[in-house]
Amino acid sequence: MEVGHVIGRFPLVLRSGSAKVLAALGGVVLGLSMVTAAGADSIYPIPDPDPFYAAPADLAAHQPGDVLRVRTLPPVAIFPGATVTLVQFRSTNSRDEPIAATTTVLTPIGHRPDGPLMSYQHFINALGTRCAVSHLLYSADPNLLTTASILNVAMAQGWSIALPDHLGPYFAFGASRLGGRIVLDGVRAVKQVPELASRQSPVALAGYSGGGMATGAAAAMQPTYAPELKLAGAAIGGAPMNLVTMVEVLGFDPHPAFGLAMAAAIGLEREYPSRLPISSYLNQSGLAVRDVMANDCTNQILADGLGGSARAFTTDTSGFDVGEGRAVLEENSLELFGEVPETPVFEWHSPDDPLIPVQAIDNTDHRWCAAGVPVQTMRVPAPEHLSGAVIGAPEVMGWLNGRVRGEPAPSNC
C-alpha cells in the first residue's frame, strides 16, 4: 500500500510538465508562476514523500555499505514468486560526503543461501525520485519490462538480483562515478542483511545503457573503492563510454534524443553544482525545460526534449567545453578513467547504434585489453539502441554463469 500511494501522487506532474515543455519548445518564455514545485532556482528533484528514503540523522556515523533500513515490499507481477526487499544503506557522493542510497533485492523461490548475486543496474536515465526502481517495479514501466526476461531467467537459475538506485538521492543522471560507488556499497549492504542470505555469495555486475555506465564505473573503481569485494565479472552493454563525445552527438544540433543530453546536464549539475553550473548558461526557455524535466522519468524526458538542442536553450554553449565543466565530463567518462577493472568483462553493443558514439566503446575495450583485463566483446545486430539489451541477453547470461562457476574467462582482445 505504501508503494502504490507514493506512485499515485505523481501523474499530475507528468501532465502539467508536458504542457509546459510544449510551450518552451515553441519558443514561449514561461513566467515564474509556471515553474515546478521544486522552485525557480532549484536544480534538485522533489524529495520522495516516503520517509523511508530520507537520510537518518546519524548518517555520518556509518561506514560506506552499512545498512540503514530494510523494508519488505509486496510481490511484483513481472517477477513471479520473488521476494522483494528494499534496503537503504550509506554511500558516498562525488564530493566524498555521506549519502543515503537504496537497492531493491529480488530473491527467487527456493533461494539457496550464498547463491550467486547479480547487481543489475537498470537504465534509470531519469531525474525524479518517483523513478526509483522500487517505484518502477509497481508502475508497469516499459523500460524495466525489456529486462524482466533476463532477470527472471537468472532467478530461475538461482541468482538473487539487486537493483540499485545508482543515480543517488538527487537522481544525478550522468554522474557515473557516483553510480559506481552506489553499486559497490549496495553489494556491501546486501551481504549484511541476514534474511537475504548472501554474505558469501559470488557477485557479478551487469547493466545496459546508463546502467552499463554505472556497471563499468563500479568495475573500474572496485579495486580502490571496495577492495574487499571480489567480483566474478561485469557485463556492460550499450554504455556511453565518453560524455564529451555524447554531448557532441546529442547536444548541439536538434536531435530526437536531446532530452537525455539535457537530463545528463541537469544531473551533473546536481552532483557538481559549483564545478558545472549548467543553469547559469540556460536562457529562459532552457530554464523552463529544466524545471519541467526535474522530476521526470526516461520516456517523459525524451518527450520533453524531442528535437531540442543546446543552441536553442542556452545563452552560451561553452559550459562543457573548457575548465571545470569539461573536467567533470572527462572524470565521468569510462574511456578516460584512470582506473581499470580487475575483474573479467563482457561488453556488448550494436556497431550501428545511433544513440551513442561506438568509437568510444571500442577505445575503452582496447584500453582495458592493453591493461590485461580479459574482455569478451560481442557486437549485436540491432538497428537502434534499446533492442541491443534484449538481443545480447542470452549470451550475457551464459557468460555470467561461467564466471560464478569459476571457469576461465574467455577473451577476444
From TrEMBL:
<dbReference type="Pfam" id="PF03583">
    <property type="entry name" value="LIP"/>
</dbReference>
<dbReference type="InterPro" id="IPR029058">
    <property type="entry name" value="AB_hydrolase_fold"/>
</dbReference>
<dbReference type="InterPro" id="IPR005152">
    <property type="entry name" value="Lipase_secreted"/>
</dbReference>
<protein>
    <submittedName>
        <fullName>Lipase</fullName>
    </submittedName>
</protein>
